[in-house]
Amino acid sequence: MRLLIIGGSGKTGRELIKQSLEEGHIVTAILRKPQKLNIKHPNLKLIQGDVLDPSSISSVFKHQEAVLSVLGHKKFIIPSNILSKGTSNIIEAMKQGNIKRLICVTALGINDSKYKLGLYYTLFTIPFILYFYFKDKEKQEDMITASDLDWTIVRPGHFIFGRKTESYRHGHNLGHVILTKMISRADVAHFMLKELKENKYIHQKPGITY
Ligand SMILES: NC(=O)c1ccc[n+]([C@@H]2O[C@H](COP(=O)([O-])OP(=O)(O)OC[C@H]3O[C@@H](n4cnc5c(N)ncnc54)[C@H](OP(=O)(O)O)[C@@H]3O)[C@@H](O)[C@H]2O)c1
């Protein structure tokens, strides 16, 4: 398929690009700094763009079949709308480009999965570090669910570096109110590409953890 990947220079994004190319997809990645990505492949096209600047991304959406977003950032402790504003621009560009399929990573702990990242996140990390980030993620999810796209929201547990195992749990009611469940970024990328083929969770928000 012709895939457009957002967040491809990030830790999950690099895995996603790598696995997409291994599976034979034709990949376009929108990156703020294309020089940051050290993957070269005949089926990979890098476009410089910022999701906060619609004019820098809108033309890239034409002729794509699906959009995969692993957008994220590290400005956790200040109020920000990077995820929601960026996603609103992505949704608008998808409409203009006539693309229906969106698979977007958020996190366990958002909206109706509240508390599912475990007690440490619920009592410490979310209120004291990720408060604004998670508020923005809630809005991001709300925008996607209100759209008329064929969306899937993927909610991973806590990320660990690790290899692709292809052996993980996915679906509803994952995570735990006490324990923090983990997942590798490589397996999140694997799950996104699996969902792209199977379309099992259209208009759903599956979690993914070990
Ligand atoms: N860490 C965890 O335990 C955990 C658990 C569950 C879910 N998640 C979520 O999973 C997602 C991916 O995580 P990650 O660790 O792979 O994130 P990451 O390494 O921080 O990568 C984020 C990506 O988003 C890009 N980006 C940020 N602002 C952008 C903009 N304005 N325009 C275009 N691209 C922009 C970054 O580009 P630059 O390289 O230019 O900055 C980077 O490619 C995040 O949403 C994260 O919150 C994380």
Q: Helix amount, in percent?
A: 25-40%
The third-level CATH topology is Rossmann fold
Rg over CA atoms: 16 Å
Contiguous runs where pLDDT drops below 50 for at least 5 residues? none
The rounded distance between the terminal residues' Cα atoms is 28 Å
Summarize the main sheet: 8 strands, mixed
CATH homology-level superfamily:
NAD(P)-binding Rossmann-like Domain
Principal-axes shape call: globular
Classified by CATH, the class is: Alpha Beta
Q: Specify the number of helices.
A: 6
For the largest beta sheet, what order do the strands appear in spatially? 3-2-1-4-5-6-10-8
What's the oligomerization state? Answer: single chain
> Structural class per helix/strand content?
alpha/beta
CATH architecture: 3-Layer(aba) Sandwich
Query: Could you give the order of the helices and strands?
Result: EHEEHEHEHHEEEEHE
Beta fraction of the residues? 15-25%
Q: What molecules are bound to this protein?
A: NADP nicotinamide-adenine-dinucleotide phosphate
Mean pLDDT: 97
- The number of domains is 1
Number of E-state strands = 10
Highlighted features:
single chain; 210 residues; alpha/beta; Rossmann fold; eight-stranded mixed β-sheet; two-stranded parallel ribbon; 10 strands; 35% helix; globular; binds NADP nicotinamide-adenine-dinucleotide phosphate
